[in-house]
TrEMBL record:
UniProt superkingdom: Bacteria
Name used for this protein in its record: GFA family protein
Amino acid sequence: MPRVETGACFCGAIAATMDGEPFWICYDHDDDCRRAIGSPLTVWVGYRPSQFNLSRGTPKAFSKTPGVIRTFCPDCGSSIGYSDEGLPDELYLTIGFFDKPEGLRPQAHAYWDLRLPWVDFADKLPRIERYSRKRDAKFGNPRDR
């Protein structure tokens, strides 16, 4: 049977199903994401937009950086995910959106150079200084836009 994950925001106004396997799961130590999520780091779970199916509600969208759109619940403020035009056909959902996150194991650390100095990991996962995914160079780095 194909994998199906479910997720919802804190208040339950937004809910979705994610069909199939995620293509990438990564710890993110980026300071922009840290501010957006309100946590020292997050875990992003990558799906194709076609794998994401809203079953309840309509997320609100926000963009501080051109080409990067973050979504969240307009009622409780829970982060849902983000998309980046430099990463076409990729949608990233925050681990906190999932009903059963224990089955979603990270594969690497991204933006390792921006981690908070008191965050320590004993794992042997790759530590990538910046993006963990190959971005389309014509869109530039969001930090430089």
